[in-house]
Amino acid sequence: MRLPLLLLTLLATACNTRPAQETTSTPPPSARTAPDAQLRETHWVLRQLAGQPVTVPADTREAYLTLRADGTAEGNGSCNRFRGSYFSEKPGELTFTPLMSTRMSCPAIATENAFTGALAQARAYRISGDTLRILDATNTAVARLEAVYLH
Predict the structure, then answer these.
(1) What is the pLDDT of residue 59?
(2) From CA 141, how far away is CA 64, in angstroms rounded?
(3) How far apart are the first and last CA of the chain?
């Protein structure tokens, strides 16, 4: 009589036991956030102007901007290369001198003119991850660019 009682007790205990990892709660994995891209020496590709997506017509280049450590701003508006200077003396501040460029025409000339116009309006910037927003005097985003890393 003792043997069946002992067997029943062992079986009941074995059925109620859970492995240690199931009984302890593990915290959720922490969200990994990438560091913000650097304003200078980053290849910034234009993605939006005044909140509207930028499309690249066939046989034209993506518009981009690169701000060099020496204060030089250079890029391509889709049709023409441009160059000038920029100032960013305080965190979040960004202004450009008038940009010089070549004057060729192409199907994306309207986008190019809007891009260089947005740069002329720049007074500030915000970087979040790989996104650069160029802001005007009213803190409205006039352009959104994305960091593209060249290998």
Answers:
(1) 82
(2) 17
(3) 78
- As a residue count, the chain comes to 151
Query: CA-to-CA distance for 80 and 108, rounded, in angstroms?
Result: 10
Going by C-alpha positions, the residue among 126, 42, 132, 134 that lies closest to residue 92 is 126
Q: What DSSP designation does 151 have?
A: -
Q: What is the DSSP string of 38-81?
A: PSTT-EEEEEEETTEE----TT-PPPEEEE-TTSEEEEE-SSSE
Average pLDDT over residues 22-37: 57
Q: Which two tokens stand for residue 38?
A: 């650097």
120: tokens are 């002329």
Alpha-helix residue ranges (DSSP H) falling in the chain: 2-16, 20-23, 109-121
For residue 2, pLDDT over 90 is answered with no
- Provide the pLDDT for residue 60: 86
Yes or no: say if 84 and 73 are a contact pair by the CB < 8 Å rule.
yes
Q: How far apart are CA 60 and CA 107, in angstroms?
A: 8
* Contact by Cβ (8 Å): 98, 116: no
Residue of 151, 143, 110 whose CA lies nearest to 127: 143
User: What domains sit in the chain, N to C, each tagged with a CATH number?
Assistant: 43-148 (2.40.128.270)
